[in-house]
Amino acid sequence: MSEQTIPSEGTSGDYAGRYDRALLPVFGTPQRVLARGEGVHVWDTEGTRYLDLLAGIAVNALGHAHPALLSAITKQAETLGHVSNFFASAPQIELAEKLLELAQAPQGSGVFFANSGSEANEAAFKIARRTGRPRILALTSSFHGRTMGALALTSKEAYRAPFEPLPGGVEFLDAGDEQALAAALAPGDVAAVFAEPIQGEAGVRPLSAEYLRALRRLTREHGTLLILDEVQTGVGRTGHWFAHQAIEDLQPDVMTLAKGLGGGFPIGAVISFGPQVHELLQPGQHGTTFGGNPLASAAGLAVLGTILEDDLLGHVRSVGAQLTREILALEHPLIEGVRGAGLLLGIALRAPIAKQLAAAALAAGFIVNAPDESTLRLAPPLIITDQQLATFTAALPGLLDAVSASDAATAASIPKGEH
Ligand SMILES: *Cc1c(COP(=O)(O)O)cnc(C)c1O
């Protein structure tokens, strides 16, 4: 058979067209079709290799095809893959115990397993409702997910508007405004405040330690739950098990997790701290078919175990700090600064060129993303080395220059009056 008539297997063929014909258009057409991954690299169907500096959006904590994760999932699948929640399994119980230990949760705390970040936040939302108080506070620029309850907590109008009415009772406060927080909590009718320690989707924007402390103090004063969404920041991403642990005595009442927890295997979790929160969801008031099944739990245990054994928390702090120093040392006129912690970093740009920059980086073999117009987000696998990160830092000035030059050219080529 001639090679011209049949696209050889493993090439992109007409994947873009087939994608458009077979999938709902919610994501737009992806720029590449990926075929495999190993360590911190992925390859597309054309055989091009990329340094994965996004890790499936802070998911592939151990990179791709990590032997510990592979063997845990394989062994568990060979043994017992799924049982309903009519039954327990050892991996589920062990993972819950491990999470409670790492979160330094007091006696009487508990875990509910879900399958995603949105689902974890849905469960937290239901916990908040069960306090019997009518109001819930979330912050401007928040992102808590796309399901209806999680969306009700998400501030971005473009995400919300097409789906109204959303579950009610949610109000948004300016992130960082302590006075507004105090005023909103004062009537004593607020069930919970939802907050991300670092607002990842908003462009890697950390809440200040001062504001986080105020959140804890004021919610405690008014009997309001502090619910920290650590879906993106948790599980070692910031160089701590959970981002809030960077600040002393900042234990939340509820914490939600997902993304990195399964290292790529879907799993989410809600941790309730202490006996009072524990009692809010009574038997029969919440549930899931898949949540916490043996396979997902085994994946979670492998991720946590590897982070522990390989001291990845220390590693993340060290390579994250080194990367930040190197990016700042470029002293590039288009780089304003670096936000974030550990290996959740946002390179703040002085021009709205982040989307073009991410595209140029991809063409140069680096996967990054642009959560907003002027931020480039890096969230690589936690196992990445200084040397691997340095290849990106070395390429960055050239990418910035190329993008700003073509941007200027485009701007110049647009006739005045047609903007
Ligand atoms: C990604 C994310 C979510 C949503 O998680 P999904 O698994 O996509 O449902 C919620 N909160 C935060 C902070 C996130 O980064």
From TrEMBL:
The misc remark on file is: May also have succinyldiaminopimelate aminotransferase activity, thus carrying out the corresponding step in lysine biosynthesis.
Gene name of this polypeptide: argD
Task: For this UniProt record, give its keywords in alphabetical order, as a comma-separated list.
Answer: Amino-acid biosynthesis, Aminotransferase, Arginine biosynthesis, Cytoplasm, Pyridoxal phosphate, Transferase
Q: How is the cofactor bound?
A: Binds 1 pyridoxal phosphate per subunit.
Family indicated by similarity: Belongs to the class-III pyridoxal-phosphate-dependent aminotransferase family. ArgD subfamily.
Give the protein's cofactors.
pyridoxal 5'-phosphate
Its annotated compartments are: Cytoplasm
Please name the HAMAP family in this protein's record.
Answer: ArgD_aminotrans_3 (MF_01107)
- Name-wise, this protein is Acetylornithine aminotransferase
This entry's Enzyme Commission designation comes to 2.6.1.11
GO cellular component, alphabetical, reads: cytoplasm
Where would you say this protein principally sits, based on its record?
A: cytoplasm
For this protein, the record's Gene3D superfamilies field holds: Aspartate Aminotransferase, domain 1, Type I PLP-dependent aspartate aminotransferase-like (Major domain)
Catalytic reactions of this protein: N(2)-acetyl-L-ornithine + 2-oxoglutarate = N-acetyl-L-glutamate 5-semialdehyde + L-glutamate
Q: Name one GO molecular function term.
A: identical protein binding
Q: Which residues carry this modification: N6-(pyridoxal phosphate)lysine?
A: 259
